[in-house]
Design brief:
By secondary structure, the chain is of the alpha+beta class. Helix content is 28%, strand content 28%. A 5-stranded antiparallel beta sheet has the order 1-5-4-2-3, with helices on one face. The radius of gyration is 13 Å and the shape is globular.
Length: 102
């Protein structure tokens, strides 16, 4: 996984399919006090809170709140390996794509 973080802009998010809102995305990070979300595969995510503790569903077999689940969907569609929010900036890193496979 490439750990290079790229700052996202409103224009970047408008290019996502379907387009995402910068305000809505940041609101989820603030509402749940999230520092970053790491995508390890299509259905394996790690959500870390600002205090360094992991955020886990209250029920082990349950799901995360709908706002976080929407971010998981966004990350999977856009091949985002990490999404973070810090100092008022929303940043991401992408999974590397092997051009030989394309």
């Amino acid at each position: 996984m490439d750990n290079t973080l790229i700052e996202l802009t409103e224009q970047d998010m408008e290019q996502f399919i379907p387009p995402a809102s910068m305000e809505d995305t940041i609101a989820v990070f603030i509402a749940y006090d999230i520092s970053f979300i790491r995508n390890f595969s299509s259905d394996l995510y790690y959500v870390e809170m600002v205090d360094g503790e992991p955020l886990v569903p209250s029920n082990p077999m349950g799901s995360y709140p709908p706002g976080i689940e929407k971010l998981f969907d966004l990350m999977a569609r856009e091949r985002i390996s990490m999404l973070s929010y810090s100092d008022g900036k929303l940043c991401c890193s992408y999974f590397q794509v092997n051009s030989e496979v394309l």
